[in-house]
Amino acid sequence: MKSIAPDFYLLPTLLLSERLLGKIFVTWQGPGTPLLKGRIVETEAYLAEQDEASHAWRGRTQRNRAMFGPPGTLYVYFSYGCHYLANIVSEPVGSAGAVLLRAMEPVEGIAEMERRRGTRELLSLMSGPGKLTQALGIGPEHDAQSLSGPKCWLEDAPELPASCIGTSPRIGITRSTALPWRKFVKGSPHVSKTRGATGPKKGRNLLEC
Question: What is the pTM of this model?
């Protein structure tokens, strides 16, 4: 698979959150370490305007400064004092937008992911935003880092048909809760466990959507 072209990240945030589904997220820790790859199966979009759940709602801060940076970089932050969450920055420089990576399907480097996560349960390795960052080794050093490599990048994959993509309100927030800005791959058992009636059915995979 080839890497995503830089202009892919210029898509509007809401469209980007959908087009990211099926793409392969890759991290590499350096010589002697395996490539770690996950197929994106769930995302959430966040914008500065009309979105009180966004970190950029009240403007730029030291914490969210990466969210105002170039599209195609990472915005990584510490959540609830226990795990890091990774977002792909969108929108032009100075206009905050980002897509939260909520869940992935393990693709390559699974043994290392199991070591990092402390579990061999495949469906639990990356089925949540904190789980996938732990599996991929994403931390504060990745904040504001470009997705052009060499430490992290996206590999291209065919665009999913609309029939494979589900939509719902976002999860785990208390403001702007009605916005239907969560996207997920229908039928994927790797989608995060907090899913309502619109979530995937057990036992299906990406290719069956």
Answer: 0.90
